[in-house]
Write a structure and sequence with these properties.
Residues 225-342 form the 3-hydroxyisobutyrate dehydrogenase-like NAD-binding domain. It comes from Sphagnum jensenii. Residues 64-220 form the 6-phosphogluconate dehydrogenase NADP-binding domain. With 359 residues, the chain is α/β, with parallel strands linked by helices. The protein is built from 17 helices and nine strands.
Length: 359
Amino acid sequence: MAPGACLLLPRVNFIARHLAPLHRAFLHRSSLGSSPTLTPSFFRGLQAAAAAAVSSEVLPGSTRIGWIGTGVMGQAMCGHILEAGFSLTVFNRTPSKAEALCQKGAVMVNSPNAVAHQSDIVFTIVGYPSDVREVILGEKGVVQGLQPGGIVVDMSTSDPALAREIYAVAQERGCESVDAPVSGGDKGAKAGTLAIMAGGREDTVKGLLPLFKCMGTPTYMGPAGSGQSCKLANQITIASTMVGLVEGMLYAHKAGLDVTTYLQAIGGGAAGSKSLELYATRIQKRDFAPGFYVHHFVKDLGIALHECQQMGISLPGLALAQQLYVSLKGYGEGNLGTQALILTLERLNNLTLPTRNTD
């Protein structure tokens, strides 16, 4: 079976759920000796079930895709879907950030609800849990416009509890929801090599493979909320790795080592990491342009800390990293990339790394 064909199962399940009470009512009336009445509500139920019965294999030219959030990550990610031949309806609070996509064939609308009305599958990638709640569950949100059998995929980093809430609301409306946050930064988004961590119904996630593979490599993590939990663990790992990276660079410099040579020496050993690969050279060049914003990372680490409190576990490395990043916000540097952590450590030590001017 083609991966996209797996999407048929959730819709068949919806038909069964929707028609079951109609069938019971029909049998009840028959048992009472009265003729079943074909009421307007009966026909509305059949109409909804018929809509859900439409084959849902994900194919360019037939599957309508919606996208909400075309910032640093979103623009590149949905650009890959557009390039794969899918029709695309987009919304962004700052319309100018979606203009490049519109020039390539995307259609811009004025609300998340309007995106949902014109889409079979809607992706969202926005900044904060409050934004996720507004664009998906709000008065003009996705679930208000999504047709029965439709799917909403939230790729933001958000709260696992909110992901479970969205899933429950989607199910009530005969729809599906997947939480699928990503890791890999702006370079991964542009290259289509993101790590995608998915939570929800496994068959729904399998059905989305043709779309996920446009953006990177998906891994199914478990039921609703599991994708977000995986992403938070990912952010905890990155936070401590970034602290180690910038501390090691400062130590090497203070010890009189050439920092570039030091990085080359450790890159192939146990200290090598994706953070070193992506950010070490940027740090040396004082390139703090955001692949991932500091203020969004502070938000992620804050959610992780809250989850730890709920679980009753202590992660001191996470707490320290979060405070170091909060310091950047205190200096008005929240719009820089996460590699700007070096600035905090430089200020603590009254020390500045030498600038690398060549590749």
